[in-house]
Amino acid sequence: MNTSRTERGVTYGILALFALIALTPVAGILSTALARQDSLKTGFALPDGLNWHNFADAWTRGHFGSYLFNSVLVAVAVVAATTVLATLAAYAFGTMRFPGSNGLFYLFVVGLTLPQEAVIVPLYFDLRHWGLTDTYWGLILPQTAQSLAFGVFWMRTYFRNTPRSLLEAARIDGATHWSTLTRVLVPMGRPAFSTLTVIVFMWTWNEFLMALVMVSDEAHRTVPLGLAFFQGQHSSDTALLAAAATLIALPVVAVYLLLQRRFIQGMLTGSAKE
Amino acid sequence: MSALTGREAGARRAAAVPGSRTARYRRRAPGEPRAVGYLYVLPALAVFGVFLLWPLAQTGWLSLLHWDGLTRASWAGLDNYRDLLTDPELRAPFAHAAVLLLFYAALPVAIGLLLTAALTRFRIRGMTFFRTVLFLPQVLAMVVVGVAWRAVLAPDGLLNDTLGALGLDGLARSWLGDDTWALPAVGTIGTWVETGLCLVLFLAGAQRIPRELYEAARIDGAGPVREFLTVTLPGLRAELAVALTLTLVAALRNFDLIYITTSGGPGNATSVPSYEVYRRAFESGEVGSASAMGITLTAVIFALTMVVTRFVEGRSR
Description:
Strand content of chain A: under 5%
Oligomer: heterodimer
Number of strands of chain B: 3
Strand order of the largest sheet of chain B: 2-3
Structural class of chain B: mainly alpha
Largest sheet of chain A: none
């Protein structure tokens, strides 16, 4: 196709402009995180040196060390539980027929658009009744339930797309349904699993409302919650606030930059539900 | 029920060529009969049922009660829902949500389509870079997005500094603290978050449109506008549905951003249903009313996603 030089120029110009708009707030936070702490500005600041100690201060003064620990613990547990439970259920939905299987599957799919606001109120009273508020379980169990909607949907697609001849071959070789899953399908499904893992990790890591409602003591705070409270108390410490925000965003952004293709694909397919 | 089912169904139709192998497999439900399937589903269903489906039913029940969360509840019937329709204070959050729909969904989709029209006329180098950068806002926690944007919109923030540098000091204001501007300011953050998502989706979709269609259109003498309307737009129908669904849901579920930027203020200028559910249930002790709001919000989300799907599927026939 023939396209003129100006048209190319304009096109790249537009793309560059939008990339700039997307990056500015991110760059602003990074720059402020390295600026001096005594600035009274609430906006972004330009660093006059590299004040790496802001991160150390946020870590200690803002208790982000313990918040990060909580976040890692909850995220690992939710990712592990979601992966195992979703794989088992999706294996059945994707390769077996039993009465009601479609209905059950759609029950899970409903969870994809369901807003947390529809369940958060009684969930709080239930968990408090069971003594699970202010515990890790109070964060892990509800978030696993939420992630299962995506997990089951995503893994079922994987199981449905595996060649049927493979399942038949395994069966002829005398494999049981269990060993077909664990010996053949799970080892083959690495790409599907890694997408599931990074997406659920990101959602759990960034989750806010659930943590806000279920946790009132500082000991169980996760990082997004920590940042919200930190902002409430130190809103004038712009540099510290920015350093804390950077600490929170870093793990997810790092994974995203490594696996961006898988990430985007998973988020678009998954959250697009049925 | 949505775009994907549409696409799946399309693939199934395409595969159903008589005599082809896939046709025989796809027509029936997959797999073989196995009652053991229930055992595999059970653990997930238990967690899902106890921590999602059961609370959902409970919310429905709570929405029919007057309850402050502490003392005995009393039967309210549909009172809480009636209040949603008649009480201006309860209606306002939905009106705000409607405004946010423009900023979160309509605007990003429109910008995405416009840019796609401009960007699909030739192969772009460095697309991976642009895609990664444009999608980045989707990856950040809303709490982090909120902190970053407060620094942009603050009285001495980046936006006002820029206006000052341009000699437009008169326009500067406390964007998030201004009765008129707080809602559009929050909306702008939404536009920032969702535009990249739409653009990435549309560009991916546009790459799948056969080049021959463009060449044919050009031979027929179509200009850029006709080319967009007759080739690009119809080719993007599935992506359009996905983008609209995702952005609509994001617009209606934006609790974190409101909490961190404005807390519904000033006054209640930026209160939205999701924030009201939280505030009423956990701060002002109006559990029944909060539940009715939650159920209504859910109904609105389901209805809107259904309309999007219908609209897109209807046109494909």
